[in-house]
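In response to the reviewer comment on reproducibility (Comment 2.3), we provide here a single inverse folding case reported in full, input and output, so that an independent group could reproduce the run without further information from us. The structure tokens appear first.
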């Protein structure tokens, strides 16, 4: 699965499609932003509706850094996101 990185306030987050289906099927997909690993891992989730591209992997690669940053700012912490079972591990 293709990944991108995004640096926000000096921290480098990995970004990839979440793999969680949405009710909008092919028109929308989830993105997960992850910082760190293991018990110290922080995750944030958002949804993205690409135009013209149906593959989440291709759409992620085509995003500009600015759009990716805007999506990060609109994301929600794992404990509030159904994609992460509300933060359950």
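Designed residues, in position order:
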């Amino acid at each position: 699965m293709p990944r991108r990185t995004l640096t926000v306030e000096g921290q480098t987050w990995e970004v990839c499609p979440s793999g969680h289906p949405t009710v909008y099927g092919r028109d929308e997909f989830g993105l997960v932003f992850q910082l760190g690993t293991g018990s110290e891992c922080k995750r944030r989730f958002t949804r993205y509706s690409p135009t013209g591209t149906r593959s989440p992997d291709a759409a992620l690669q085509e995003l500009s850094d600015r759009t990716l940053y805007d999506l990060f700012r609109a994301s929600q912490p794992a404990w509030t996101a159904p994609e992460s079972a509300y933060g359950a591990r």
